[in-house]
Amino acid sequence: MAESVTIARPYAEAVFQLADSKGTLAQWSTVLARAAAFAADADLRRAMGNPAVSADQLYGLIASLVGEAMFAESQNLVRVLIENGRLGLLPEIGEIYEQLKNEREGVVEAQIGSAFPLDPQSLAALVADLERRFKRRVQPVVTVDPELIGGIRIQVGDEVIDGSVRGKLASMALALKS
User: Fold this and answer.
1) What is the per-residue pLDDT for 2?
2) Can you spell out the DSSP letters for 153-172?
3) Between the CA atoms of 16, 17, 22 and 24, what dihedral angle is there, to the nearest 10 degrees?
4) How far apart are CA 114 and CA 151, in angstroms?
5) Looking at the DSSP assignment, which residues form a beta bridge with residue 111?
6) If you average pLDDT over every residue of the chain, what do you get?
7) What are the two backbone dihedrals, phi and then psi, of residue 138, each rounded to the nearest 5 degrees?
8) Do the beta carbons of residue 130 and residue 163 sit within 8 Å?
9) How do residues 105-151 score in pLDDT, each as one tens digit?
10) Which residues of 50-64 are buried (b: 16+ CB within 10 A; e: fewer)?
11) Contacts (Cβ under 8 Å, ≥6 apart) of 159
12) What is the DSSP string of the chain?
């Protein structure tokens, strides 16, 4: 994983610089997200590794799957990745690109794990509180994790806020052991 991220980073940074200079950050986000989703597919991965599938066929497949979101520069990226045997890096390229884009736009992603589904009002209040705390716009990614027993667990970057019952029980167990 670390090796693929190391290889993907220069591609993502080059795409980000191009998109930033041309004001096409959102357009690139769409293309990279779609292309990355298809590049992660097991069937497409088999086609990438199949010597009977030509570079033009592989490009045609990706272009047809991504559809009309593709534009000249994104077509060039896909062709370069195919030529260099690195089409499988699209998920990592997309992820790194989104991190760079979010940093530029002052957005931070918050991974929110909840024991139960959050209603829209509770989520909006939580996001507002997180935005005040981190002084940035917060993009929530909510997952339901019944193992938390109750409450929520939030991760923003390296910071973790564990308000789950499971986390509190683990803290109590640790305190009792000391």
Assistant:
1) 60
2) EEEETTEEEE-SHHHHHHHH
3) 10
4) 6
5) 141, 155
6) 92
7) -115, 130
8) no
9) 999 999 999 999 999 999 999 999 999 999 999 999 999 999 988 88
10) eeeeeeeebbebbbe
11) none
12) -HHHHHHHHHHHHHHHHHHHHHT-HHHHHHHHHHHHHHHTSHHHHHHHT-TTS-HHHHHHHHHHHHGGG--HHHHHHHHHHHHTT-GGGHHHHHHHHHHHHHHHHTEEEEEEEESSPPPHHHHHHHHHHHHHHHTSEEEEEEEE-GGG-SSEEEEETTEEEE-SHHHHHHHHHHHHH-
In the numeric block, the tokens 């736009």 are attached to 105
Place of tokens 């033009």: 56
Phi/psi at 143 (nearest 5 deg)? -130, 150
Distance (Å, whole) CA 14 – CA 7: 12
* Residue from 147, 8, 26 nearest 84 by CA: 8
Cα gap 124→137, rounded to integer Å: 12
Residue with tokens 């570079």: 55
User: What's the token pair of residue 35?
Assistant: 């292309």
Residues whose CB is less than 8 angstroms from the CB of residue 131 and which lie 6 or more positions away in sequence, other chains included: 137, 138
Q: What CA–CA distance (Å, rounded) separates 107 from 81? A: 28
Q: At 110, phi and psi to the nearest 5?
A: -115, 120
Distance, CA of 21 to chain centre: 22
